[in-house]
Design brief:
four-stranded antiparallel sheet; two-stranded antiparallel sheet; 4 helices; 6 strands; elongated
Length: 168
């Protein structure tokens, strides 16, 4: 891939529409298009068995007299269609690399068996400290128990009289 352009492949995990394998974006890093990306490329399964995938280019659909047409947003210049073929090849190469990476087996994450440590009992971890909420002073708690009121009841009672007391 070129240093000035990166192809980002977005797999079609949902499978809708059928036959669509992925979307592709071109990210520009140099030149007048630096910092921009071109969207709308799609990679499709070929309808003919044994042939390569197809790449569609960004286009805008419109209708004339009820007939649906499309307007290609990325078209070849006067020099021919070589530019489109280079882009198509670049997108297919990036897609093939992504498929290859996805198919490659992941490195084993299980450590090798070590008989010395395999049956060792780990040391017990200390119990985490218990966080305590706001505490009601012991005297107030006893007074509330004798009067049959709780801190919430006392707050409601104080609010009705026009003053709110912070009990905690």
């Amino acid at each position: 891939m070129s240093d000035s352009v990166t192809v980002k492949i977005l797999p079609n995990d949902k499978g809708i529409p059928s036959g669509k394998l992925a979307d592709a974006e071109l990210h520009f890093h140099a030149g007048p298009l630096a910092g921009l990306r071109l969207l709308g490329f799609a990679i499709w399964q070929s309808r003919v068995k044994g042939s390569a995938c197809n790449v569609t280019f960004p286009a805008r659909t419109y209708s004339v007299n009820g007939e649906r047409r499309s307007f290609a947003l990325l078209r070849p210049s006067d020099s021919g269609i070589d530019g489109q073929e280079r882009i198509r090849a670049l997108i297919l190469q990036a897609y093939a690399e992504q498929v290859e990476q996805a198919a490659a087996p992941a490195a084993p994450s299980v450590p090798a068996f070590d008989p010395k440590t395999a049956f060792a009992v780990p040391a017990a971890a200390p119990a985490p400290a218990r966080e305590e909420g706001p505490q009601v002073p012991e005297e107030r708690y006893q007074a509330e128990q004798q009067n049959g009121r709780t801190a919430t009841d006392t707050r409601k009672f104080s609010a009705q009289q026009g003053s709110v007391l912070d009990l905690f």
